[in-house]
């Protein structure tokens, strides 16, 4: 080994040192390049992940908004339907009351027919008794008070 060292000149030694230094430098550059590529890939991957997450959240918000709008529309339709049903029921009840009142008036007209003397003067005792008797009979038959005129 000493012989090898003795034969080697200083310029050969410096050339070897330069070669080693150049190899280390190129290796460092390649490592830096690989690190930069890896970091760029990581950033791109993170960006894709973040974009996908934002799109997912936007889709969820849009779906939630659509569901809320649909529920609101259904609530409005249900309220409108309920209001229409109440209006219809109210109209049917009013028509039923009118028919019932007309029927009761017709029934009262059948039960109480004042005589010509009572039509002239209703304040006589005979007319009052006839009216009271008709009133009592109407209540017995229909179970309610006769209509008022």
UniProtKB/TrEMBL annotation:
<keyword id="KW-0812">Transmembrane</keyword>
<keyword id="KW-1133">Transmembrane helix</keyword>
<feature type="compositionally biased region" description="Basic and acidic residues">
    <location>
        <begin position="60"/>
        <end position="99"/>
    </location>
</feature>
<protein>
    <submittedName>
        <fullName>Uncharacterized protein</fullName>
    </submittedName>
</protein>
<keyword id="KW-0472">Membrane</keyword>
<feature type="region of interest" description="Disordered">
    <location>
        <begin position="56"/>
        <end position="99"/>
    </location>
</feature>
<feature type="transmembrane region" description="Helical">
    <location>
        <begin position="20"/>
        <end position="38"/>
    </location>
</feature>
């Amino acid at each position: 080994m000493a012989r090898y060292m003795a034969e080697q000149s200083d310029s050969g030694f410096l050339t070897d040192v330069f070669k080693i230094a150049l190899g280390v430098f190129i290796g460092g550059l390649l490592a830096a390049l690989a690190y930069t590529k890896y970091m760029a890939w990581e950033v791109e991957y993170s960006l894709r992940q973040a974009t996908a997450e934002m799109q997912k959240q936007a889709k969820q918000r849009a779906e939630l908004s659509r569901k809320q709008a649909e529920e609101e529309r259904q609530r409005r339709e249900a309220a409108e339907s309920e209001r229409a049903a109440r209006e219809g029921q109210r109209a049917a009840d009013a028509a039923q009351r009118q028919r019932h009142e007309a029927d009761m008036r017709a029934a009262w007209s059948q039960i109480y027919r004042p005589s010509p003397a009572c039509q002239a003067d209703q304040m006589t005792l005979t007319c009052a008794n006839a009216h009271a008797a008709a009133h009592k009979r109407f209540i017995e038959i229909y179970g309610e008070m006769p209509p008022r005129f």
